[in-house]
Amino acid sequence: MVELCNKTGILSLFDEIKDLYDYLLGIEVGLDSNTRKNRSGKIFEKMCQEKIKRLINPYFMVVNNDQNFSLYKPFSGNQKGKTHDFVVYKGNTPILIVECNFYNVGGSKPISIAESYIELQKAAKEKNVIFLWITDGPAWHKMKDPLLRAMKKIDYIVNYKMLSLIKKILKNS
């Protein structure tokens, strides 16, 4: 047992830690905050999905995280790659992809997402698919520039309150 603790570095860790309880509590808090990190995003995604299903005609089908259709390039060796939050189908044809984000705080993540969605808009047009970005949250109040830049290049960006516009977006599809 001592040999295992020595090889894994646990013994040297005990030399550096002054209070094991505080150290372990810090790890627990860190892990817990990581589990909460995207909780609001998942709740927002679920709220959007339910509202979209209520708003659109029943002959459209909403598929959550569809493994069969993605405009994201597959990662090396992985044929499936990343999925979209929702794909809306008319019959067997994908006509709309939806990405949802909710940001409580600003930072580099919302900025990089906005930039990547500009590229996603281009890929959607090439495939004759509509791209809809639903984004909301208090972070955007302090980070208007990246959102305004994206709004110039992405056809449809709405917040939760504006989601009823999906009926107009799908009307010509």
From TrEMBL:
InterPro entries, A to Z: Restrct_endonuc_II_DpnII-like
Pfam families membership: DpnII (PF04556)
Domain Restriction endonuclease type II DpnII-like per the UniProt entry, residue ranges: 2-164
Coiled coil: none
One annotated GO molecular function: DNA binding
Any GO BP annotation: DNA restriction-modification system
Name of this chain's protein: Restriction endonuclease type II DpnII-like domain-containing protein
